[in-house]
Design a protein that fits this description.
alpha/beta, globular, five-stranded parallel beta sheet, 45% helix, Rossmann fold
Length: 157
């Protein structure tokens, strides 16, 4: 059985994230999606809220579990017995950063990272843009799951 770990801040989860999760669910026996603390990003939702949004968004996928974690990705990967870390790529700029992180994680733990490119229809999606768009009254209903759109409207009014 192949278990992969898909870590991210998911603040909030959007349809690009879901595309990667759904693809991974088809490719691997078990997918663990972990919402993590990212000290480099300003968050809107706390870990509990992000975990709940991910659970709602992935409840249709039987081989996907969701959890939260504050620490190193490699520590969580070891804890759950992950065979691989999984990362989604939107653009070349993502690859440059993710490749360095993958190499660091591999050097520290021996675990390899696999990359799944997003479809061009969702490659523009980024949580920071979703947050900004919502903050100024934009309609994000086609960019995020319905439960996330509702929570974003509640948060920003």
């Amino acid at each position: 059985m192949t278990r992969v770990l898909y870590p991210g801040s998911f603040d909030p989860v959007h349809n690009g994230h879901l595309e990667i999760i759904e693809t991974a669910a088809k490719l691997f026996d078990e997918v663990v999606v972990a919402t993590m603390v990212n000290t480099a990003k300003d968050g809107v939702f706390d870990l509990d809220e992000r975990e709940a949004m991910l659970q709602e968004a992935t409840e249709h996928l039987r081989n996907v579990t969701v959890r939260m974690f504050a620490g190193l990705v490699v520590d969580l990967a070891a804890e759950i017995g992950a065979d691989f870390i999984l990362k989604g790529l939107r653009a070349v700029s993502d690859f440059e950063n993710e490749l360095q992180m993958a190499q660091m994680n591999n050097a520290a733990s021996g675990i390899h990272t696999l990359f799944i490119p997003s479809a061009s229809s969702s490659s523009f999606l980024a949580s920071k843009f979703i947050r900004d768009f919502t903050r100024f009254g934009g309609d994000i209903s086609k960019m995020v799951p319905a439960s996330v759109a509702r929570r974003m409207r509640e948060r920003y009014g």
